[in-house]
């Protein structure tokens, strides 16, 4: 089941969006437009149900997140897979084939606007499904891979009373972890999974994550796997077991 969220979106036209400091003597201005955010919903047979919200990594789509969520979620969970707002073209799978598309969550161009959009989308989905009695608002779990991992941590520690748990896979902590006053302590359980051969988040980069997360959450698990920047079967099995315990 595909659903749509509608949001105003800031947009601007200028000669080069890659260089914010150069407007060639002009003044940067903006307009507001509306975009749709798409998400897949797989309701549980018994409602209201615990919910797993899955967010994909950069260059992927909600279909990738849905595939992973279906392989991970225990029986009885509802699933939502939200698609990133920023679309881009990808190379064909084979020479001469059709161009593909992917989606991302934010860049370093006004990232605060993308963070706010991510927060608003999650709150609206949660509120809508709670009001429809599709989900149990006390058992909501948020999963993110790669780029969406830090975004989800931003949401969890800003809206500290919303989630029952957060799962971060092969991703990072927010860059403003030590300085952002909006981050509060939460009782949400945290499960962070890392790949020992991850070229983007190698062991030396993530070795202090558990300690940092425990400054704001009492229930933190951190595990490393024989994996690169990917989700491997052992990760899926461990997340399913963790959700089974935390979601009951």
Summarize the structure.
The strands form two sheets. This protein has an eight-stranded mixed beta sheet, with helices on both faces. A two-stranded antiparallel sheet has the order 5-6. It has helices spanning 62-72, 111-131, 147-158, 203-206, 209-213, 233-246; strands spanning 2-11, 31-42, 49-55, 78-82, 86-90, 100-104, 135-145, 165-169, 189-195, 220-225. The longest helix is centred in the middle third of the chain and has 21 residues, at 111-131.
Any overview of this molecule?
35% of the residues are buried. This protein has six helices and ten strands, in the order E-E-E-H-E-E-E-H-E-H-E-E-H-H-E-H. It has 248 residues and is α/β, with parallel strands linked by helices. It is globular, with a radius of gyration of 19 Å. It is 27% helix and 29% strand. It has one domain: Alpha/Beta hydrolase fold, catalytic domain (Rossmann fold). The strands form two sheets. It has an eight-stranded mixed β-sheet with strand order 1-2-4-3-7-8-9-10, sandwiched between helices. A two-stranded antiparallel ribbon has the order 5-6.
Question: What's the SSE blueprint?
Answer:
Elements (H helix, E strand, L loop, with lengths): L1 E10 L19 E12 L6 E7 L6 H11 L5 E5 L3 E5 L9 E5 L6 H21 L3 E11 L1 H12 L6 E5 L19 E7 L7 H4 L2 H5 L6 E6 L7 H14 L2
Parallel strand pairs: 3-4, 3-7, 7-8, 8-9, 9-10
Antiparallel strand pairs: 1-2, 2-4, 5-6
């Amino acid at each position: 089941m595909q659903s749509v969220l509608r949001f105003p979106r800031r947009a601007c036209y200028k000669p080069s969006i890659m260089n914010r400091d150069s407007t060639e003597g002009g003044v940067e201005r903006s307009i507001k437009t509306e975009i749709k955010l798409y998400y897949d919903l797989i309701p549980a047979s018994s409602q209201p149900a615990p919910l797993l919200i899955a967010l994909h990594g950069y260059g992927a789509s909600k279909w990738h997140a849905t595939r992973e969520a279906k392989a991970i979620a225990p029986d009885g969970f509802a699933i939502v897979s939200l698609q990133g707002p920023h679309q881009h073209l990808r190379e064909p799978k084979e020479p001469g084939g059709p161009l593909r598309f992917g989606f991302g969550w934010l860049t370093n161009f006004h990232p605060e606007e993308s963070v706010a959009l991510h927060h608003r989308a999650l709150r609206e989905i949660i509120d809508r499904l709670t009001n429809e009695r599709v989900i149990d608002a006390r058992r909501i779990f948020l999963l993110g891979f790669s780029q969406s991992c830090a975004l989800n941590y931003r949401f969890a520690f800003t809206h500290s009373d919303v989630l029952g748990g957060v799962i971060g896979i092969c991703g990072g902590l927010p860059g403003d972890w030590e300085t952002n006053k909006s981050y509060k302590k939460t009782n949400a359980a945290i499960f962070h999974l890392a790949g020992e051969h991850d070229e983007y988040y190698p062991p030396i980069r993530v070795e202090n994550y558990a300690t940092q997360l425990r400054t704001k959450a009492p229930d933190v698990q951190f595990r490393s796997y024989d994996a690169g920047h990917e989700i491997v079967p052992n990760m899926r099995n461990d997340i399913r077991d963790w959700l089974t315990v935390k979601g009951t």
